Amino acid sequence: MNQQQAESKNNLEKIAFQFTKDTIKDMQSFGSGNINDTFLVTLSRSKFVLQRINTQVFRQPEFVMQNIYLCTQHVENRLSKLQLDRRWETPRVIFTHDHQNHFIDESGAFWRAISFIENSRSYDTIQNLAHAEEIGYALGMFHSLISDLSPEKLTDTLEGFHITPLYLQQFDQILAETTISRSSEVNYCLGFIHDRQPWAYVLENAKRSGKLALRLMHGDPKINNILMDAATEKAISVIDLDTVKPGLIHYDIGDCLRSGCNAFGEETQQWQSVRFEPELCQGILRGYLTVANAFLTDADYFYLFDAIRLIAFELGLRFFTDYLAGNVYFKTTYPEHNLIRALVQFQLTQSIESQESLIRSIISDLR
Ligand code: GN1
Ligand code: MG
């Protein structure tokens, strides 16, 4: 360990001690988030997750914490009355010694601690059909548990999040401001976005015309945010609650499917091989609908296909825009990282489009 590493370890320990009086046995970087910095803190008898919130992205982190607290309290309350016959847990906010839900360090960085769900694991890709069904069940469970918490109680902590037309505006703006070198991949992305501009308003139009209701959503239910019990391989929790806020549940369904039905995972370099797997889609939706069928309307069903197609497209657009902007939003490990990520999502979008009638029939058969 060099001096700089030792210093930053000491500093991290000081921050961790704001949230515990126990002995710190170990502290490691944790997970693969694209926005926040995450550490797993091991104490003598338990563990917790320590995170530095990216305040360039989350401009009002206090409201993020307030949303998470309201949501997790609500879910704990529901769970205590439900008497589920299977394991289900919600992450808890851990308070500082002076009862704050966050800590601001000397440099102004915003830190928070969340409980660690024991005996759990997550995956970056779906392992089999049973896993797909569990992923869908977990999202359904999550939506069901927050369905009676009024969206107005939570703050919009990330304005424009999943509003595809706003990402198109940002893209146009960056394009106008930037001189880009036009490789064949860049030209492909530009054409791909151009061809889908008119359709990209589909969910926002449905929201504006009242066909789809504003509800609470998770915002980021990709498959590695769903924890499985390490022994039984049953879903037990949905984590990463930073983007729980008012929105459309369609964003969640789309996000869960774009991440779950890509067997190569969103970080693959083999973007040309990416394909949307209809069997996994059927599995996830089957699991989701065992819970969600109770609260989905005809219009909700009608827009499911568009949601699946749109969120894959939107994430591609977000990655590509960030590539053009010089990688300022998503963490990257090499200069073309966001370009490759965009190509993966566009390939997935194309695969969804080419299987439209099959996906639509999967949806209607499951109703
Ligand atoms: C970001 O940081 P992480 O991995 O939880 C992003 C999501 C994307 C995801 C893609 C606030 O989430 O919208 O779907 O990367 N979160 C935010 O991996 O923009
Ligand atoms: Mg997230």
Walkthrough of the structure:
This protein is of the alpha+beta class and 367 residues long. The chain contains 12 helices and 11 strands. The strands form 3 sheets. Strands 1, 2, 3, 4, 5 and 6 form a 6-stranded antiparallel beta sheet that branches. Helix 4 runs parallel beside helix 10 (304-325) and helix 5 (184-196) crosses helix 11 (337-354). The structure holds 2-acetamido-2-deoxy-1-O-phosphono-alpha-D-glucopyranose and magnesium ion (MG).
The helix/strand class is: alpha+beta
* Principal-axes shape call: globular
CATH top level label of the largest domain: Alpha Beta
Helix content range? 40-55%
Radius of gyration: 21 Å
Number of domains: 2
Counting H and I runs of at least 4 residues, what is the number of helices? 12
Q: Could you give a short account of the major beta sheet?
A: 6 strands, antiparallel
Beta content? 5-15%
Tally of DSSP β-strands: 11
Please describe the structure with a list of short key phrases separated by commas or semicolons.
367 residues; alpha+beta; Phosphorylase Kinase, domain 1; Aminoglycoside 3'-phosphotransferase, Chain: A, domain 2; 6-stranded antiparallel β-sheet; 3-stranded antiparallel β-sheet; 12 helices; 11 strands; binds 2-acetamido-2-deoxy-1-O-phosphono-alpha-D-glucopyranose; binds magnesium ion
